[in-house]
Design goal:
Among the domains are: 5-200; 345-458, Alpha Horseshoe (Serine Threonine Protein Phosphatase 5, Tetratricopeptide repeat). It contains 25 helices and no strands. The protein has helices spanning 5-18, 24-40, 43-49, 51-61, 69-87, 91-111, 118-129, 137-143, 149-161, 165-184, 189-198, 207-219, 223-232, 244-254, 261-271, 278-291, 295-307, 314-325, 331-342, 345-352, 363-379, 383-397, 404-418, 422-434, 441-455. This is Tetratricopeptide repeat protein. It comes from Phnomibacter ginsenosidimutans.
């Protein structure tokens, strides 16, 4: 799990030669393909690797039926390929693999209830199933995928507290799921970071943990921590070569308006063979040049947004929409946005102090100002001020296509949830879900649905 794939491949080759019937090598081969394809998204590698999927499943099916590893290993293969298929826009294949993983894991749980790693799969899958956006709900209904946040979380927690040898073997993978779910679905990033610190995870030699921590810090507006982790990780040819490090560093540098951000953006865009977040990366690189007054480079980046990548991710959809519109961002609001996204809240607030929504002639800019101010106050734990700004944005922007109103409702719900005002929180989360035809609709809806699940019965 440390992403030292080169030595891992060599060890597997030795083991296969010594014991061709060792089915553990079949599962581990799939892990190597999963990490390589998930992080790098290279189409030629995908086309070569996907022929092994059915072969590996058939090999694992030949394992002794009395072994709890038989169905469990098959469930892992299906789950990994579901994630891979999503990266390559094969949604039906992803849906069926997710379904098969879910059913196999549930079946294994029934047959071998004492096998603790079952919860490592069934727990996260139930949590994800509970928050599927309405656009995908028909698919989950057809495929029989269901679950609740509470039950899923309990299963994963039970696995993490198990101390048997099977639990120890899969513990690192469970930790990875746990931290991401704590952050994205349970809305408890502080618990995720406390867990990382308490477990003393190796962020230097284990690149999977390093990526996870760097990514979570970036998501939670702690870009200086992202930079520290990336810079301190061990660099060696043993590890998976991937452009994601430059991707994360590029955003972290841009979020403090650093002059060297293009170095990392350009390196990522030159080396990355996939499509996810490519449009957004070009947009963000364009922002750098726009703030520097380099209109020619900015326009070039907007052309690349139109031509490169795809629109599977909400951020890429938003990037394409902006590039096609020809709209030029307000430089003051853009600077405040980037600084706020990086966690430099006081610097962002200093830019907006003394101004009001009425200082902006365009309604879209007035909404963005109120929303940005709300997010900054939110990050500074000035809850009353944040709620006032969010309420203004919701009232003025709920019928528009910008995401400001829907995201304001989501953030307001989180504040009320934190304050144990669950009825208000549910009302805000429902508002976020009810708004339609806006940017980032699916991701905001999923987070709002997770919020409703958390507040249920409270």
């Amino acid at each position: 799990m440390a992403l030292r794939l080169a030595p891992a491949s060599k060890l597997l080759a030795v083991e296969k030669a010594a014991d061709p019937n060792n089915l553990a090598t079949v599962l581990l081969d799939n892990y190597i393909d999963f990490f390589t394809l998930f992080f790098n998204e290279e189409k030629t590698a995908y086309d070569k690797a996907k022929v092994f999927r059915s072969q590996r499943l058939a090999q694992l099916d030949a394992a002794p039926k009395e072994s709890p590893l038989r169905l469990f290993a098959k469930a892992i293969v299906h789950l990994q390929w579901a994630a891979i298929h999503i990266k390559f826009n094969e949604k039906w294949a992803a849906g069926w693999d997710f379904r098969d993983a879910f059913k196999l894991a549930k079946q294994n749980q029934q047959q071998f209830p004492q096998f603790s790693p079952n919860g490592m799969i069934t727990g996260p899958m139930e949590m994800v199933a509970a928050t599927i956006p309405k656009s995908m709900r028909w698919l989950s209904s057809i495929m029989g995928i269901s679950g609740t946040m509470q039950h899923g979380s309990q299963q994963l927690e039970a696995f993490l507290h198990a101390s048997d040898n099977w639990a120890k073997l899969f513990r690192e993978e469970g930790i990875f799921y746990h931290c991401y779910l704590q952050n994205y679905l349970l809305n408890q990033p502080e618990k995720a970071f406390a867990f990382i610190e308490k477990q003393d995870l190796d962020l230097v030699n284990n690149h999977l943990f390093a990526y996870m921590a760097a990514n979570l810090h970036l998501t939670n507006k702690q870009s200086w921590q992202t930079q520290r982790i990336i810079q301190q990780r061990k660099v060696s040819a043993d590890y998976l070569t991937t452009a994601v490090w430059d991707f994360e560093m590029a955003y972290a540098r841009l979020f403090h308006l650093e002059a060297d951000a293009p170095v990392y953006f350009n390196r990522f865009l030159q080396q990355f063979k996939g499509n996810f977040y490519v449009k957004d990366a070009w947009l963000k690189l364009g922002y750098h040049y726009y703030l520097q007054g380099n209109t020619q480079q900015y326009q070039y980046c907007m052309q690349q947004v139109k031509q490169r990548g795809n629109t599977l991710a909400d951020a890429d959809k938003r990037a394409l929409k902006e590039a096609q519109s020809g709209w030029l961002p307000n430089k003051l609001l853009l600077k405040a946005r980037l600084l706020s996204d990086g966690g430099y809240s006081k610097e962002a607030l200093a830019l907006l102090e003394g101004k009001s929504a009425n200082d902006f002639a365009d309604l879209a800019e007035r909404l963005e100002f109120a929303y940005r101010l709300g997010r900054i106050y939110d990050d500074l734990a000035l809850d009353d001020r944040a709620l006032k700004a969010y309420d203004y944005t919701i009232a003025q922007g709920s019928q528009r296509t910008e995401y400001y109103a829907a995201r304001s409702a989501l953030q307001a719900g989180m504040i009320c949830e934190k304050l144990l005002q669950f009825a208000k929180a549910r009302a805000y989360f429902q508002k976020a879900m009810d708004m339609q035809n806006h940017d980032y609709e699916e991701s905001i809806e999923q987070k709002a649905k997770a919020g409703l699940e958390r507040c249920k019965g409270k």
